[in-house]
Design brief:
Number of strands: 20
Largest sheet: 5 strands, antiparallel
Structural class: alpha+beta
Strand content: 5-15%
Strand order of the largest sheet: 1-4-5-6-7
Distance between the termini: 57 Å
Shape: globular
Oligomer: single chain
Helix content: 40-55%
Radius of gyration: 32 Å
Number of helices: 24
Length: 697
């Protein structure tokens, strides 16, 4: 219980001060704020014991209650405040518990009515879920109802709501319906199975998400035979389509159809392969609580910077990326406008329900890695920073030529010939030292922008020249000349840091604090985001509705964490397996990965706050989508395009929302969120007034 008590002084007509008769105090109890007001008496006015009337105001529902207390001279003002709040809080709790019992009884009756009549009306279930939000049986029936009736979006949304309620406070209310006799784990597993079914019905583009949902269903309850069968059928279907597509690409295939016996054998083999695929999927995904020990250690191998795809960006991601110290030092970037101009081709665009969405797609880059990554080098055992790498003109990776199969076993003559060629190349390099070459000081601004991408107009007034975007920072000639000059002067040359794949290890120019939320969270994700990223698990209205149910502030809501293991990532390598060594032998990366509680990893990377940011933006997307503005603009392509362009400038150029006197938005991510929220609401209202109301007229 916390306390804030205030005394106000008042001047009398003679200029003398006396204590004001009104005394106020505030307390916060169980998530509720109470303000107490009562008339204060001077000590000489007290009798031995007397009654005092106290007003208690509760901010939760803006109600005021009166309570009469007996007070003696020995009991100070804080006693009055504490005792009054204790009485009112107890009465409110008792009232709330009685109301909750009545609501639950009504919800149970509605649910039983739905089951007994085999009703097709979801109003009974919706009303029951509203009265008893924690009840999981009602929510399972609701999700099944939506799936059966083809309302797939609603089905997926309510599956996420079900899991949310199940995780909160280790939900135990589901056991109330003893006749249904299922535990929470089984209910959650069924919810993920239903979600997977809905995603499959959405279409082929959602198959990967459906696989995630089925995997989580089995991770929650491995004995869920229906989920396993659904996953097997989906994998078989996907494999058959891949085989068919591959066969269609093969020209001149005239083998014709397989006979019945061969087709039967093929299906048996395919089914056996799928069983192995499923076991492999399950072995690469863990769903655990935060207190689970987590064995992972980043070695800076850089493979995630090469193989990652669809890294979702929120307004706060771009705002934070623009505040990266190294980008300011190298390119004078400190606003989202300048970031988008300098690294224009790093951003990829698509639409979701008509709304613009922005991604990073490293796997699509022509360089084969993220635009914000840089190759690692060390000099005399010291790892070069991003700024030092730029200064040395080393932003390009050294060329890596994989060994061809025919080169594995060289004859003695071939080996001698190869050595002679190598010595000849070395002699040529020595002879060219000191030769004057054309100076070509490539700009570090152009690092990493290699590919074409669609973009919306952002009306940026930035006058920086980006004509060289897409070109390397330094040509091979410049790099070689710098190395030769250092060699001539007796200075140490930068040495490439290679990973276990014999590719150059990579660092991130953005650093841990400024990288996107998805990158910071690698290799873990919250379970509901992993199963289905787009549907919010709780709308603003639903959160307000449940405010009385969950008043106590929690660091997290009990949602489990998914650990996604990637074979290419050295962070998951078995003990004593060779891995990247970016530092000196003194500070070598240990051969055994560090083991720590998962919660420590989450706190170290500030993931709860980052996930809160992402949840905020997903809810904003949902609110705009639910407003119906896109549907209203579908018949006017020009107006729709104009709306999308303006929305891009609000969401992905948040610094343009700042006061003209300041350089970008200042403050925390919540400052950005408030500015983006306000600008988005204003834009939606403007377009609704201009286009929607005109249509109604």
């Amino acid at each position: 219980m916390t306390s804030i008590a205030a005394n106000n002084d008042k001047n009398n007509n003679n200029g003398k001060t006396r204590l004001q008769k009104t005394k106020r105090g505030m307390r916060r109890v169980d998530g509720q704020t109470f303000i107490v007001t009562f008339q204060k008496k001077k000590l000489e006015e007290f009798t031995t014991e007397e009654a005092i009337e106290v007003d208690v105001y509760c901010q939760t529902d803006s109600s005021t209650s009166k309570v009469v207390l007996s007070r003696t001279k020995d009991q100070d003002d804080n006693y009055v405040i504490d005792e009054a709040i204790k009485i009112i809080a107890s009465k409110r709790k008792e009232k709330y518990e009685n109301e909750k019992i009545k609501k639950r009884e009504k919800a149970k009756n509605l649910f039983m009515e739905y089951l007994s009549t085999n009703s097709k009306d979801d109003k009974l279930l919706l009303e029951g879920a509203k009265l008893w939000p924690e009840n999981l049986h009602i929510r399972v029936s609701l999700t099944s109802h939506y799936l059966k009736n083809g309302k797939l979006e609603m089905c997926i949304r309510h599956c996420k709501r079900l899991v949310t309620e199940a995780r909160r406070n280790n939900n135990t209310s589901a056991a109330v319906f003893e006749e249904l006799g299922t535990d929470i784990s089984a209910i959650v597993s069924n919810a993920y199975k239903i979600m997977g079914d809905a995603l499959v019905q959405v279409g082929e583009k959602k198959y990967k998400h459906a696989i995630n949902a089925y995997v989580l269903s089995l991770r929650e309850n491995e004995s869920n035979a229906k989920a396993r069968k659904a996953l097997e059928q989906l994998r078989i279907s996907m494999n058959e389509k891949s085989e068919k597509d591959a066969e269609e690409k093969v020209e001149g295939s005239q083998d014709g159809l397989l006979d019945e016996e061969e087709e039967k054998k093929r299906k048996i083999i395919a089914a056996a392969n799928v069983v192995g695929e499923i076991e492999d999927l399950l072995s690469h995904h863990q769903m655990v609580s935060r207190d689970t020990n987590f064995k992972f250690q980043c070695t800076m191998c850089g493979e995630c910077c090469r193989q990652a795809d669809n890294i979702f960006l929120s307004p706060t991601d771009i705002w934070r990326m623009a505040r990266t110290p190294s980008l300011w030092k190298q390119f004078h970037i400190r606003t989202s406008m300048k970031l988008r101009k300098k690294f224009k081709k790093s951003f990829h665009w698509t639409v979701k329900n008509g709304l613009p969405i922005c991604y990073l797609r490293p796997i699509k880059s022509e360089t084969g890695r993220c635009h914000y990554s840089y190759p690692l080098y060390h000099v005399n055992g010291t790892l070069l920073s991003y700024d030092e790498t730029v200064k040395e003109g080393l932003l390009e990776e050294e060329v890596y030529t994989p060994v061809k199969p025919e080169e594995y076993n060289l004859t003695e003559e071939e080996e001698l010939a190869a050595m002679a060629k190598f010595q000849e190349d070395e002699l040529d390099e020595i002879n060219t030292i000191g030769v004057t070459e054309e100076k070509n000081e490539g700009s570090a601004d152009d690092a990493g922008d290699d590919e074409d991408s669609e973009d919306y107009d952002d009306d940026t007034d930035d006058d920086e020249d980006d004509n060289n975007e897409g070109k390397s920072t330094g040509t091979d000639k410049v790099v070689n000349k710098k190395r030769k000059d250092k060699k001539k002067k007796g200075k140490s040359l930068p040495v490439s840091v290679l990973n276990s794949y014999n590719r150059q290890a990579l660092g991130c120019a953005l650093g841990e604090k400024n990288m996107p939320n998805m990158c910071a969270g690698y290799p873990i994700a919250k379970e509901l985001s992993w199963a289905d990223f787009w549907h919010v698990r709780e709308t603003k209205e639903e959160k307000e509705q449940n405010a009385d149910v969950y008043r106590t502030k929690r660091d997290h809501d009990g949602e489990k964490i998914v650990i996604v293991k990637t074979d290419a990532c050295e962070g998951f390598y078995p003990d004593n397996m060779p891995r990247t060594q970016p530092f000196t032998n003194v500070n070598a990366v240990p051969a055994v990965a560090r083991e720590q509680p998962l919660d420590d990893f989450i706190k170290h990377n500030d993931l709860d706050r980052r996930w809160e940011e992402t949840d905020w933006f997903m809810k904003l997307i949902d609110e705009v989508s639910s407003s119906g503005i896109i549907d209203a603009l579908n018949d006017d392509k020009e107006a729709k395009r104009n709306f999308q362009t303006k929305l891009v400038n609000i969401w992905f150029n948040p610094d343009k929302l700042a006061n003209e006197k300041t350089i970008g938005l200042q403050g925390s991510w919540k400052t950005v969120a408030r500015a983006v929220d306000a600008a988005t609401k204003k834009l939606v209202d403007e377009f609704r007034a201009k286009y929607v109301l005109e249509q109604l007229d």
